[in-house]
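To illustrate the input format used throughout this study, we show a single complete record. The first block contains the structure-token representation of the backbone; no residue identities are included at this stage. The design step must infer an amino acid for every position from geometry alone.
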């Protein structure tokens, strides 16, 4: 005679021990994210300061290029050597140094700085046909 069938005990469903986050894990995750966010914000403010200074240097370079172009004009229309310039509501000091080259050109070295913004500086070297003035 076959053995009597005995019912199986019901399966017990247990939750795994690693289900969900503990409070400590959550606090550590928030701490790591906040440190990363502070680092990103500092980088952004540093790049903003760098880019802000670039505008002054760009203006100084434009002033130097303008002065080099003015040196191509007839002598009666040229400003005096070392004469200051005004651009973008700023006063600019311009230093000029001329030297003859072996090829018969004149080397013009311009150094431009703003009287209002000390970081706004530029240097430019231009070669102009003809003798040194």
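Output of the design step:
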């Amino acid at each position: 005679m076959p053995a009597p069938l005995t019912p199986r005990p019901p399966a017990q469903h247990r939750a795994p021990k690693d289900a969900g986050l503990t409070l400590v894990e959550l606090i550590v995750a928030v701490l790591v994210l906040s440190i990363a966010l502070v680092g990103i914000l500092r980088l952004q403010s540093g790049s903003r300061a760098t880019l802000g200074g670039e505008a002054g240097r760009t203006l100084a370079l434009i002033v130097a290029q303008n002065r080099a172009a003015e040196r191509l004009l007839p002598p009666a229309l040229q400003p005096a050597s070392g004469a200051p310039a005004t651009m973008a509501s700023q006063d600019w000091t311009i230093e000029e140094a001329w030297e003859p080259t072996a090829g018969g050109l004149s080397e013009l070295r311009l150094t431009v700085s703003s009287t209002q913004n000390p970081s706004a500086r530029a240097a430019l070297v231009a070669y102009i046909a003809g003798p040194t003035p």
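Structural context for interpreting the output: The longest strand covers residues 90-100. The chain has one domain: 23-129.
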